[in-house]
Design goal:
11 strands, 2 domains, 44% helix, 21% strand, alpha/beta, Rossmann fold
Length: 290
């Protein structure tokens, strides 16, 4: 079957679900992954014909896309901050908003050129996208990354190796007040960062099926009546394990910006700044321990 005809099948089956542009994006990702072909191949070789063996993974992917499965899970990888990352059902798919969080941290590090070395803690690391990106871009960093999920940590460790960075990984539950593993490794951090679960159960109706059906709920949702549970726990940890003048960074629920400002102020953090993402939503908050 000709490649261009397979593309037409994709559009006929998927355009009503995703729209033409996104289907084009999916198709380009898939032919690159499975056939090592760039999208220009459809222009340069309009009569390019695939064997049955070459067709098979494309049609299998089509079926999975029809079921709303994210293309990143289908191919098992994605890109974040210009770096390759493996993903699977145990990890959230890294998002552009989180790239903005990394950018904010890098800006802060550049401004503080006096530091000869920087000790960073990433809580709820998932794929390791934040920790790996920081370790890759801050040459004088010592990075620690924590997650409660053993399976997520396996992926994060693989991604650290894939991107040739050294990170100390710790399996621990931030909601466990004793933090037996974490406390042993966490003293006087310069930066603590987290993108914890923050979607309230009442907001599930706003979440698309490709997220609800496939991404790990433990990394997404929090109770309606205790929506800041992870932020409280992490901020409590930061009080004792962030050096004076150290910085705390969070990705947050867009609807809870003011609540987060009050929370950090209650813990005596200063220089609290709420930052909007590329979509104009309150998404990042940073503060200093003074």
């Amino acid at each position: 079957m000709k490649l261009k005809d397979i593309q037409l099948v994709f559009h006929s089956e998927l355009d009503t679900i995703y729209g033409l542009d996104e289907v084009n994006s999916f198709f380009n990702i898939l032919i690159k992954h499975y056939l090592n072909l760039n999208r220009i191949a459809l222009v340069l070789e309009p009569d390019l014909t695939l064997s049955k063996l070459e067709e098979q993974p494309l049609f299998e992917a089509l079926s999975r896309l029809e079921n709303n499965e994210p293309v990143q899970y289908i191919i098992g990888e994605t890109e974040f901050f210009g770096l390759p990352f493996k993903v699977n059902k145990h990890t959230l798919i890294p998002r552009p908003e989180t790239e903005e969080l990394v950018e904010q941290i890098l800006k802060t590090v550049i401004l503080d050129e006096s530091k000869k070395s920087i000790k960073i803690l990433d809580i709820g690391t998932g794929t390791g996208c934040i920790a790996v990106s920081l370790a890759k871009n801050i040459k004088n960093s010592q990075v620690f990354a924590v997650d409660v999920s053993e399976e997520a940590l396996k992926i994060a460790k693989y991604n650290a190796e894939l991107n040739a960075v050294n990170i100390t990984f710790i399996q621990d539950d931030i909601l466990n007040p004793s933090h037996p593993e974490l406390i042993n490794s966490s003293q006087n951090f310069d930066i603590i960062v987290s993108n914890p679960p923050y979607v309230r159960e009442l907001e599930k109706q706003e979440i698309k099926d490709n997220v609800l059906k496939f991404e790990p709920h433990v990394a997404l949702f929090v109770p309606n009546d205790d929506s800041l549970i992870f932020y409280k726990a992490i901020t409590t940890l930061a009080v004792n394990n962030l050096r004076d003048g150290g910085q705390l960074f969070f990705e947050i629920n867009q609807y809870l910006g003011e609540e987060m400002k009050h929370l950090l102020a209650d813990f005596k953090f200063k220089n609290i700044i709420l930052i909007k993402d590329i979509f104009g939503n309150d998404r990042i908050i940073k503060a200093s321990k003074i």
